[in-house]
Prior knowledge:
Layout: H1 8-28, H2 35-42, H3 46-52, H4 57-78, H5 83-94, H6 98-106, H7 111-132, H8 137-159, H9 168-184
Amino acid sequence: xxxxxxxxxxxxxxxxxxxxxxxxxxxxxSGTITVKELAQRANxxxxxxxxxxxxVDDILSEYVDGMTEAILGASAEQGDIGVExxxxxxxxxxxxxxxxxxxxxxxxxxxxxxNSFRAAFRRIFEExxxxxxxxxxxxxxxxxxxxxxxxxxxxxxxxxxxYGDLPLDDLLLSFRDMLGRFxxx
Length: 185
C-alpha cells in the first residue's frame, strides 16, 4: 500500500523514490530491488521510504494507479473510453519512460505490474461497458474482465516486442477488428 499527500516534501521524496526505482530497474533488469538500495539511490533514509510505501512493489502500483486516473480523467473530458483511446492514452503516458515499461512488460518478476495494469484496464472497460451497454452485475464484470485481459496481455506483448516492429496503429486496428467480432457474435 502507498500513501498520498500534497505536502511538497512528501511529493519531492515520492518523486525521488519513483525515479530511483525506474533507474534501478533499468540498470538491474529485474524487480529485485531492496529498500536499502532504493533509499540510497533516492538519497532518503529507509524511514522516509516506509512513510510512503509498505513494499517496493507499491511504487509501481502507485505509478499504474496514477496513469489510470489520468486516462479516466482524459477520457471523461473527451467522452471516449474506447480501446483505441485507452491504448493511445496509456502509450502517451508511458512515452517518457518507454524503455522502463518495455523492460517491465517482458521481464519475469513484474507480475504485480501486469496485474495492476489489467485491473486498471478492467476498471476503465467496466466504466465504458456500463455507459454503452445494458450489461449489469456479474455480466458486466465478466465482460469487462474478458476485454481487459485480452487487451492487456496483447498490449503488454506488443510493448515487450513480441509482435516484432508492429506499429501501434496496426495493433489498434487488430483490437478493433477482433473486439468487433467478439461483440458481434
